[in-house]
Amino acid sequence: MSVAFGSIEQTQQALVSGALTSVALVQEHLDRISRWDPQLHAFINVYADEALTAAEGLDRLRQAGTLLGPLHGVTVAIKDLFDIQGKAITGGSAALPPRISTLTATAVQRLRSAGAIVLGKTHTVEFAFGGWGTNTTMGTPWNPWDLQTHRVPGGSSSGSAVAVAAGMACAAIGTDTGGSVRIPAGLCGLVGLKTTHGLVSRHGLLELCPTHDTVGPLTRSVRDCATMLDVLAGPDELDPVSRLARTRSVAQGLEKEVKGMRVWILPRPEREDVDADVLRAYDRALDALAGLGMVLVERPLPHSLEHSMRIAGSLMSAEGYAHLGPLFERRELQFDPNIQRRILLGRDIGAAQYIQLLRQRELAKAAMLEAMDGVDVCVFPTNAISAIPLSQVDELATPLSRFGRFVNLLDLCSVAVPAGLSSAGMPISVQFIGRPFAEPTILRAAFAFEQATAWHRALPPGLD
Fold first, then answer.
1. Kind of pairing between the strands at 262-265 and 377-381
2. 180 included as an active-site residue
3. SS3 assignment, position 379
């Protein structure tokens, strides 16, 4: 396997043994970006010279016996919603000239402090408001699992997922407001973590829906995801929401026993309208969990996923309009019409209705936590379908948000893990969902599943 597709764990082993240098790793990824990105369209900007300079410095530090952290010398890509001082930021929008950031987002700074090399910024759905991964003004990244047909990558962290899946970066960070890390991770064959609201600082992030916005990693393995989380998580005085976030090591607890864990499986009514390939892969995943000694529990949801979709969608539009409405009202600016429609829906949501939506959310959160009594994790599909051709996308339909939004609405955490391939050879994924701040539990369960299967080792054909 090419070093370009190595996990963080494998890459670190090669760096420690001397079989690989950070300079060679960066050059390999830059070469792949030059070769594949003209078609895949993952990156909006690539910082080639800076990345090579950083790699040289990190190699010298390693030779001197100094390591900055668990990401020392590995490459990461950054969704273009995060500020990096001195770099352009667009938020996926071509309506205005790119702004030059005057600060660096806390998440990016923590990655760098742990030794990560930032390769560049990746494409996103305009202002992160979309699950398909489409962007009509700046271009839609190409799902790397089908080089013949332009299939959707999932969004909104579309470019970040494509960059990692195509071997153009070891890992990436994205944001998840209604599934925007998990959806593209699931469609591109990666691990993607939706963190508990406030666990990772959002300082330096372009916001869409502050009550739902979270920051999370996209990686090749569950262990890589836990390693990234250990770097990213923790309190930040620059982000009031994260000031009380917990600091703990998650990666060290992945191998704890899972036998006897109680797993809430998808209620039968929610299986309707889920693609047959997805259901087959999902049922195989449940068999694997049972084989690990986990106890499968079937019980109804306190509220349907459709109910959660409606509340979450209205909150996203309301808060999106509060942040971006004046911009989207300007008729002379050219926005993605699909995003403009979603943002302007918030114009008609008044203060009384917004407060009622927040009240409904709190009631739904309390009901879900009560319903989760006696179970350790929920295991549901990540997406109801696998990646479809871009030409078949219906922007009014939301099949990719069905299993995503309710997690954000209810302030749960969730990790998406590869679980199979469709009849067309496209990735299928399941997600492990837990209570707020239960990342150690869901990652432990996901790690056990990953080790019992081989789907995380599958690579997009034709890209080696």
1. parallel
2. yes
3. strand
